[in-house]
TrEMBL record:
Chain residues that bind substrate: 16, 38, 65-74, 119, 180, 189, 209-210
Family per record: Belongs to the OMP decarboxylase family. Type 1 subfamily.
KW Lyase (keyword) present: yes
Name used for this protein in its record: Orotidine 5'-phosphate decarboxylase
Gene expressing this chain: pyrF
EC number(s) from the headed UniProt entry: 4.1.1.23
Annotated pathway: Pyrimidine metabolism; UMP biosynthesis via de novo pathway; UMP from orotate: step 2/2
């Protein structure tokens, strides 16, 4: 796995909140217990991109979970624009044309992550969407395509991480949502692991949202997750 010097960088806190003011308050409450934040559609479309740029200027790492997927030129130019925000990660859907365009547009150290199959999908969901392959096989196929195209990392369920690592090798990142502490509600996630299980599966970064954002003491929960990933 790629070397990650600060163990706090392994935890990415998902700021799935309705507005920037709420996100600012949460970041302040967490303090130095976390260094890495994810901004997706909900906050991104509520002035969250400007907030991500401010976080980067404050020394925080940011993950823009925008899951880009469009014609090649649109993706390439969109990635080029995002590259100016100081973000660390940006997601695109793992379709070959989309991934090739994203690699062409990346700049300023931005790393492109390919989303293989959403962690809310199981085999029945994939079949309903028209895919002939079960989820595990689809993840492996798309991971191989991402590796060949030069994508920096893969977003997948922790359950598929071992298979993905065998495909992409040791140099590329594996980032997993759907991580829940052992006593947390699974909510709408169907393919999940605890932080310790994710670490043992060779995961580089885990994404955790509601167990932190909905906690009475989000700082303590963040510290607990980092400790769980680093413990014996």
């Amino acid at each position: 796995m790629p070397d990650i010097a600060d163990p706090r960088d392994r935890l990415i806190v998902a700021l799935d909140l309705p507005d920037v003011a709420s996100a600012e308050r949460l970041v302040e409450r967490i303090g130095d217990a976390a260094t890495f934040y994810k901004i997706g559609y909900r906050l991104g479309y509520a002035d969250g991109l400007a907030f991500a740029e401010r976080l980067a200027k404050q020394g925080k790492k940011t993950f823009l979970d925008l899951k880009l997927h469009d014609i090649g030129n649109t993706v390439e130019e969109g990635v080029r624009s995002v590259s100016g925000l100081g973000a660390t990660f940006l997601t695109v859907h793992a379709y070959p044309q989309t991934m090739r365009a994203a690699v062409k547009g990346r700049a300023n150290g931005l790393r492109i992550l390919a989303v293989t199959v959403l962690t809310s999908y199981d085999d029945a969901d994939a079949q309903e969407a028209g895919y002939a392959l079960p989820v595990a096989e689809l993840v492996v196929r798309r991971s191989g395509q991402a590796r060949d195209i030069g994508i920096d990392g893969i977003v997948c369920s922790a359950i598929e991480a071992g298979a993905v690592r065998r495909v992409v090798g040791s140099e590329r990142l594996i980032v997993t949502p759907g991580i829940r502490p052992a006593d947390a509600d699974l909510s709408d996630q169907k393919r999940v692991m605890t932080p310790r299980q994710a670490r043992n599966a060779g995961i580089d970064h885990v994404v955790v949202g509601r167990p932190i954002t909905g906690a009475d003491d989000p700082r303590a929960v963040a510290q607990g997750i980092v400790a769980e990933m680093e413990g014996p």
